[in-house]
Design brief:
Helices cover 43% and strands 12% of the residues. It is of the alpha/beta class. It has a single domain, classed as 3-Layer(aba) Sandwich (Rossmann fold), CATH 3.40.50.10320. It has a 7-stranded mixed beta sheet with strand order 3-2-1-4-5-7-6. α3 packs antiparallel against α6 (202-209).
């Protein structure tokens, strides 16, 4: 009986390693494929825009997916016209970053973690043949953010299971799943496993975000009771928005993290102004250091 249990455990370990264990870096010359999910049209651009631009500049393929169409994220318009406007904005942002973008037709503020939508996201990950999947963490103030996370991470194992969504070929290996950074503390705070210096793509990220005017010049200032501070002249309004982005995204020295020093060294890490940070989700493949560097090929050679 004991021997049978050992054999079964060994078989299970082999199966796990084949589907959910360590990731294999893309072979030399083969572009990486990264897919990032956000709840709304602007989430991926905010959280991943700088890193996406770095991947794109090296010839890798990045796709942003908004799981809702953002059709209530405004104070003066809603429904189809707002959804169309926000889709057009992130399409313009995608051109700046060099990525592909897709907005799914689910209502803003009404997202639920249904089996139907989980299958939709499983198919998207498979169709993209993703090496890396990025999503928010499941603890957040906004239900759409939380449920986007749940939907993505609930597919983390299933993307390699053949007989769910059998109309779409399963992946041979689970991708590496990453969470984007947030400031929420409960049930546990974000832990940066990977920090990327995006100083060289910060201007490109800011330019991409400036395309999303419905949010950054209209909706968010209105929500913050700061609408009167936004200049009326288009060029001044854009400059106002860029300064806001820079102030929000500039790294605080007290946020130094071992992950930054580990990849860039103490001296260089101290000079880095803008970063994007990621936490490795336990549900996907678990990369070792060599694999992390293969998936993030812009880290300095150490």
């Amino acid at each position: 009986m004991a021997r049978t249990a050992v054999v079964m455990a060994t078989v299970m370990l082999i199966v796990f390693s084949a589907t959910g264990g360590a990731a294999e870096p893309s072979s030399a010359g083969k572009p990486l494929r990264i897919i990032a999910f956000g709840a709304h049209p602007d989430d991926c651009e905010l959280k991943v825009g700088g890193t996406a631009a770095k991947w794109s500049a090296l010839g890798h393929q990045v796709k942003f997916v908004s799981v809702t169409n953002g059709d209530i994220g405004h104070y003066a318009m809603a429904g189809g016209p707002l959804a169309q406007r926000r889709t057009a904005e992130v399409q313009d942002a995608a051109k700046v970053l060099g990525v592909t973008t897709q907005v799914l037709d689910h209502h803003d503020g009404e997202l639920e973690p249904t089996l139907e939508i989980r299958k939709e996201l499983i198919r998207l990950v498979r169709e993209w043949k993703a090496d890396v999947v990025i999503a928010p963490r499941p603890n957040d103030y906004h239900p759409d953010h939380r449920y986007t996370s749940i939907l993505v991470q609930d597919g983390a194992y299933m993307v390699a299971v053949p007989y769910i969504c059998p109309d779409t070929p399963p992946l041979e290996k689970n991708p590496v799943y990453l969470y984007t950074e947030d400031s929420f503390q409960k049930p546990y705070p974000f832990e940066a496993d990977i920090m990327v210096d995006v100083g060289d793509t910060a201007d490109k990220k800011f330019e991409a975000l400036s395309k999303i005017q419905s949010q950054f010049l209209e909706w968010l200032p209105w929500m913050a009771k700061m609408q009167q501070m936004v200049p009326k002249e288009p060029e001044k309004a854009k400059q106002f928005m860029l300064e806001m982005f820079k102030a929000r995204m500039k790294r605080s020295p007290e946020k130094d993290n071992a992950a930054l020093v580990k990849r860039y060294g103490q001296e260089q890490a101290g000079k880095i102004e803008y970063v994007e940070s990621f936490e490795i989700c336990e549900y996907g493949s678990q990369p070792d250091e060599d694999e992390i560097r293969a998936l993030f090929p812009f880290f300095p050679k150490g």
